[in-house]
Amino acid sequence: MTDIELVDLLKEALSCQLCARELPHSPRPVVRAKVGARLLIIGQAPGARVHASGIPWDDPSGDRLREWLGMSREVFYDESQVAMMPMGFCYPGRGRSGDLPPRP
Fold this sequence. Notes:
Blueprint: H1 3-14, E1 39-43, H2 48-53, H3 60-69, H4 73-76, E2 82-86, E3 94-95, E4 98-99
Parallel strand pairs: 1-2
Antiparallel strand pairs: 3-4
């Protein structure tokens, strides 16, 4: 994939509104990548905190993941080294027992 193709794909993903009617809030897709990234981290779906900040893994689970990986925050958020995407690009909202699962 070329840089231009990836940039176009990311623009499309970041402007996605497919689930707007089903979400309890405005869609805010969270995905980061650059062509040269050697690591892709795929999560389930952004949580409320990540939805608010727009920064993937910007919560205690991200702190734990960086610790497990032995990776500094600087390297972790360097898109040229680490790409990040969830299975569901947007925060699905809250259910009775926690966050809802990602939208299909």
